[in-house]
Amino acid sequence: MTDISVSKSTYAVENLSWMLDEGGYEAEGITLDISTFTAGTHYPNGFIPSGTAIGKITATGLYGPYDDTAVDGRAVARGFTARYTKVPNPANTAIDAGSALRFAGVVKESKLPITIDAAGKVDLASWIRFV
């Protein structure tokens, strides 16, 4: 049966001011473990913004927000979300989301949506140049 009930869609305006070059754009498809993100901090409007620092969870191979104090693998920064990512259902964080990981390029640090610490910049130094 077809569902013709009224539905609501939310959209976000992309802010790529943190990304200073797209020449040689290096990104790969990843899956974000939404349960590792904090609603008010990482997706206050239902979207994880592009430029969010990301780490890889070693046990699952999924990705979550970089956290230098994490013990699940996210203490090593792997890159940044390349574009904003819609959280599928903020009320059910067990549902993961597809995204893209930007792992090389030039980044304007002052334009990142969430500050990255010195340890995270060291993790990315071979691939990301911060200005």
Concise overview:
The chain is mainly beta and 131 residues long. It contains two helices and eight strands.
Quote the average pLDDT.
Answer: 91
Number of domains: 1
- Class in CATH? Mainly Beta
Output the CATH topology: Virus Head Decoration Protein, Chain: A
Spans with pLDDT under 50 lasting ≥5 residues? none
Beta-strand residue percentage: 25-35%
Our count of helices gives 2
Give the topology string: H per helix, E per strand: EHEEEEEEHE
**CATH architecture assignment:** Beta Barrel
Q: What structural category arises from helix and sheet content?
A: mainly beta
Describe the sheet with the most strands.
6 strands, mixed
End-to-end Cα distance: 54 Å
What is the CATH H-level superfamily? Head decoration protein D
How would you explain this protein's 3D organization?
This protein has 131 residues and is mainly β. It has one domain: Beta Barrel (Virus Head Decoration Protein, Chain: A). The chain has two helices and eight strands; from the N terminus they run E-H-E-E-E-E-E-E-H-E. The protein has helices at residues 39-42, 118-124; strands at 26-32, 47-48, 53-56, 63-65, 77-81, 85-86, 97-107, 128-130. The radius of gyration is 15 Å and the shape is globular. It starts with 25 loop residues before the first strand and ends with a strand.
